[in-house]
Amino acid sequence: MASQNEKLNNVSDQVASLTTIEAVEPQNSTAFSLTSPATLQDKVRISIARLQEFEPPEGYYLAFSGGKDSEVILDLAKKSGVKFEAHYNVTNVDPPELVRHIKRNHPEVIFHLPAISMWQLIVKKRMPPTRIVRYCCELLKEHGGEGRFIVTGVRAQESRNRKNRQVVELCYTRNVKGKRILNPIVDWLTVDVWAYTRLNDLPICELYMKGYKRLGCQLCPYAGCKTQKREAMAYPWIKERFIKAFDKCVKKRIIDGLPTEWKTGQEMYVWWLTKPKTKAEKLKKLSESFIYD
Ligand code: SF4
């Protein structure tokens, strides 16, 4: 049987020329793919097999978000008997209910504070994070685990962007070259996640009971302006922090001699929450002044 290193070397050989996250076919593909229709039992068995197959000697770096998919992946990792630690990246815009939920139910999770806050980042980048330029994700949410084998709760059904995600991937983005990623529940449906949660009596964050479908950063531009507005009502202090940061951002743009049609952070905030089509032109101009470092 191939050793862990041999398996990983084979995996690396397949991705020599990759520039971003790319899929890697596992060596024993029949053990990793689901036949349709698969029962929840099949999915659990296969996901556990995936975790066991690639277990690195130093253990996995489990990227934990406190959401429903993360709860499932944490439970499967425990059941599979593999070595791992769970990590949570604080982003400054985390809902307090989520942080409380993790601390109360999973005291073993390691918290990481960002090297730069969301508010400092907005000023540094001289523009708010947007659907197209999501610089905060890379710097606040996806850091950590360099050189490790990362386990995530990513599922293909979650969004259009994730529909082609695979079980095993290598990440070749700018900051995290060579990160290895395992997505053991990539082919689970939302209904599987909830069924598993119920059957195994997993703890869930109270925000789901308040109607939230996805947890994580509040007022995230990726969620869309309707959701941003709802979250601004629920967390007015996060909204205020954004407006303050936008204020500094507008001032910085003026000092740096960049074109800016906003006079205050409030004006920039109102624009930020308008529909993507309405703000397309300004967004293009903003992106031109984006700082890449
Ligand atoms: S999830 Fe949204 S707000 Fe949070 S870091 Fe990513 S883009 Fe930024």
Give structural attributes.
293 residues, alpha/beta, Rossmann fold, 2 domains, 7-stranded mixed β-sheet, 11 helices, 7 strands, elongated, binds iron/sulfur cluster
Describe what you observe in this structure.
It is a single chain. This protein folds into two domains: 4-210, HUPs (Rossmann fold), CATH 3.40.50; 221-288, no CATH class. Helix 2 (40-53) crosses helix 3 (68-80) and helix 9 packs across helix 10 (265-272). Strands 1-6-7-5-2-3-4 form a seven-stranded mixed beta sheet, with helices on one face. Helix content is 41%, strand content 9%. It has helices spanning 4-13, 40-53, 68-80, 96-105, 118-125, 135-141, 190-199, 225-234, 236-255, 265-272, 280-288, and strands at residues 22-24, 60-63, 84-89, 110-112, 149-151, 168-171, 179-182. It is α/β, with parallel strands linked by helices and 293 residues long. The protein is elongated, with a radius of gyration of 20 Å. The protein binds iron/sulfur cluster. Residues 91, 93, 129, 134, 136-137, 140-141, 216-217, 220, 222 line the site of iron/sulfur cluster.
